[in-house]
From TrEMBL:
Protein name: histidine kinase
The UniProt record lists the keyword Acyltransferase: no
SUPFAM superfamilies assigned to the protein according to its UniProt record, in alphabetical order: ATPase domain of HSP90 chaperone/DNA topoisomerase II/histidine kinase, Homodimeric domain of signal transducing histidine kinase, PYP-like sensor domain (PAS domain)
An MF annotation (GO) of this entry: ATP binding
Matching SMART domains: HATPase_c, HisKA
Organism in which the protein naturally occurs: Pedobacter lithocola
Major enzyme class: transferase
Catalytic activity: ATP + protein L-histidine = ADP + protein N-phospho-L-histidine
Keywords annotated in UniProt: ATP-binding, Coiled coil, Kinase, Membrane, Nucleotide-binding, Phosphoprotein, Transferase, Two-component regulatory system
Annotated EC: 2.7.13.3
Residues forming coiled coils: 111-180
Length: 668
């Protein structure tokens, strides 16, 4: 077997794979020489060589020198030798006389070696046959011994059968023990099946079989009490009914749960349940479990007190409450809510019945607000009138509500409170009537005064009366401002009284912006107004009211802008909405003021704005107009950098908002 090779062996070895037999890897002639030489080396144990063996390689002939050298192997029985191949190039041609390899000589020697090996093999085979015959004789003797051993084994089997009978008896005893272990396992299963705090195990004869350490808090128990009747054991429980409960559980197989108090003021939940044997599913006793609920009782008592105080507060405030269970729609109303909605205290009121009491014009707004709260979770806060039973006077209420979540943080209840705000509403009506009355009373003499001043101005346009003309122009400007303020009060009064309507019509927004700018520039503003238009920007809205909003935005920009600074008006139009933005380079607005800027009567309180006239109505009225158009208003501003006021309107026709609002707005 070839172990290792060194150097280039491609000239001497054939390219065969999956074999390590060197003789197989050699060309036939070289293999024959190697075989003969190997046998001679194994016999003589000396180095031997053969030279000039003629071998064909790649259509060429070469002479090969072959040397075999025996190697020492450290006492191992395996024989190693080193085989050396080398090419003999000492002759120029193989055709020269006397240089060709004597193949016949080595072929004969190779044949003789094979014959010797065959002869040796036959001798070994004959020896093996003789050994096999001897083994057969030994086997015959062994079989005779096995027969004798089988007879002995039969005798042993009879003895084993007797032992098996004894083992069957022992196995029966083990089965009995196994049943006892199963019953103990049942005890453990039933023990862990209940809520462990303190436990008693009672059998059918009402004898104590086992108890947990925690039970001694409620019952005076010792280890020596096991096996005693339950009636002989004293407890710390007030109004004890343990024995009666155990008998009911044994007779009916039911589970009894009670809350009991001990003499030391502790509260426990006592659960008495059947003791079930799993082997035959029979009721063989009862388990009594004590769960400490003292802290739960304290919390429950505190909660009851809080609910009582809350109820007193609600009653004192004359506040109504309601609850809607979202999955079933179940509606629960308090007595005060029934009273406010005109129901009798004994009436069963559902959501539909309560909704029917809301005035028709406010009902859809109320339903939409409820729907928005349920969908988005936003706070519910709305004011609406409720029809009275005699249809003479309406009751105004304010309702505030929110969602209550379950353990999975999903909405479960919609709850809220409502209060009677009728007196407040009546006060607002009286206030608005007063404002309207005063405004009308002031407006009449102002209109007359303005007409006289304009008449005087028309007759004073001569050089000698220049001072008179200038004074009249200033007086006329102040009268316009006064008229604007009074008109603002009238608009607020009309808005809160709900007497205003919209006149929806299609118009081009760019044209409206240009007209509004022309009217404002007529007042000789010192600011330059730049318009960035969007082509073909048509919208369905109340043209007059939107023009008043634009007037308010631009007038405020002029008021608060720096002198000679430009004002930019940008109109943008998308597929769904139009947007108007008015930008100035004025004082800027803080974040806190931005949040309240569109509230009624709100004005920024600072030294720089005290000298600017107004009552805080213009932006409030603008926001209300846009709100009733289903649009949006907002502002972006930085202190000292100026401000940009925006409003947006939906492009599609707003049928749902027609005939709901009509406002006359001027700048304030």
């Amino acid at each position: 077997m070839l172990l290792k090779s060194y150097g280039d062996t491609s000239k001497f070895l054939l390219p065969k794979h999956f074999t390590t037999n060197l003789e197989t890897l050699l060309p036939k002639k070289l293999a024959m020489v190697y075989h003969s030489l190997r046998n001679n080396v194994l016999k003589s144990k000396e180095k031997l060589s053969i030279y000039k063996v003629k071998v064909k390689h790649n259509d060429e002939f070469l002479r090969v020198n072959l040397t075999l050298t025996p190697l020492a192997n450290g006492g191992s029985r395996q024989k190693l030798m080193m085989v050396t191949f080398s090419e003999d190039k000492s002759y120029a041609s193989f055709s020269e006389a006397g240089n060709e390899f004597d193949e016949k000589k080595y072929h004969d020697e190779y044949t003789r070696n094979l014959e010797d090996e065959l002869r040796s093999l036959k001798e070994k085979l004959n020896s093996t046959y003789e050994q096999l015959d001897a083994s057969n004789e030994n086997m015959q003797s062994f079989n005779e011994e096995m027969i004798s051993a089988n007879e002995e084994m039969q005798s042993t089997n009879e003895e084993m059968q007797s032992v098996n009978e004894e083992l069957d008896t022992i196995n029966s005893e083990y089965q009995l023990k196994n049943r006892e272990l199963t019953e103990i396992n049942d005890d453990l299963n039933n023990y862990f099946r209940s809520n462990i705090n303190g436990q008693l195990f009672i059998n059918k004869e009402l004898l104590l079989m086992k108890f947990s350490p925690g039970t001694v808090k409620q019952i005076n128990l010792l280890e020596s009490d096991i096996g005693r009747p339950l009636s002989n054991i004293t407890t710390n429980i007030k109004f004890e009914t343990l024995i009666e409960d155990v008998r009911n559980v044994l007779n009916e197989g039911s589970v009894i749960t009670k809350e009991i108090e001990t003499n030391n003021g502790k509260w426990y939940q006592v659960m008495t349940m059947p003791y079930i044997r799993q082997s035959d599913h029979t009721n063989s006793g009862a388990i009594i479990t004590f769960n400490d609920i003292t802290e739960l009782k304290k919390v429950q008592k505190e909660l009851d007190n809080s609910n009582k105080v809350l109820g007193m507060a609600i009653d004192a405030a004359e506040t109504g409450t309601w609850t809607i269970k979202l999955d079933t729609g179940e509606f629960t109303a308090s007595q005060r809510l029934k009273e406010l909605f005109g129901f009798n205290c004994e009436d069963e009121v559902n959501y539909a019945a309560a909704l029917s009491k809301i005035k028709q014009e406010s009902r859809s707004v109320f339903e939409q607000a409820v729907s928005d709260t349920i969908k988005t979770g936003q706070k519910f806060d709305i004011e609406f009138p409720v029809a009275s039973s005699d249809n003479r006077f309406d009751t105004w209420v304010r309702a505030i509500g929110s969602l209550s979540l379950d353990n999975d943080n999903k909405p479960e209840y919609f709850t809220g409170v409502l209060n009677d705000i009728t007196i407040n509403k009546q006060d607002e009506v009286r206030k608005n009537d007063f404002i309207a009355m005063v405004s009308h009373e002031l407006r009449s003499p102002l209109t007359t005064l303005q007409a006289y001043i304009q008449l005087l101005m028309s007759r004073s346009e001569i050089p000698s009366r220049a001072f008179t003309l200038s004074a009249l122009e200033k007086a006329n400007t102040q009268i316009k401002k006064m008229t604007s303020l009074i008109t603002g009060f009238l608009n607020v009064s009309s808005l809160e009284a709900g007497k205003i309507k919209l006149n929806i019509e299609p118009f081009e927004l760019n044209d409206l912006v240009k007209e509004t700018i022309d009217d404002i520039l007529f007042l000789k503003s010192s600011n330059q107004i730049i318009v960035k238009e969007s082509p073909l920007c048509e919208v369905d809205a109340d043209r007059e009211k939107i023009g008043q909003v634009i007037t308010n935005y631009i007038s405020n920009a002029i008021k608060y802008n720096r002198a000679e600074s430009e004002i930019v008006i940008e109109v943008s139009c998308s597929e769904d909405e139009v947007q108007v933005a008015v930008t100035d380079k004025g004082l800027g607005i803080s974040k806190n003021d931005q949040a309240r800027l569109f509230e009624r009567y709100y004005r920024i309180d600072s030294n720089s704005t005290k000298s600017i006239s107004g009552f805080g109505l213009g932006l409030y009225l603008s926001a209300e107009i846009i709100k009733h158009h289903k649009g949006k208003v907002w502002v972006e501003s930085e202190l000292g950098e100026g401000s940009t006021f925006y409003f947006s309107l939906p492009k599609k026709e707003m049928d749902s908002i027609k005939n709901t609002l009509k406002v006359d707005v001027v700048s304030s």
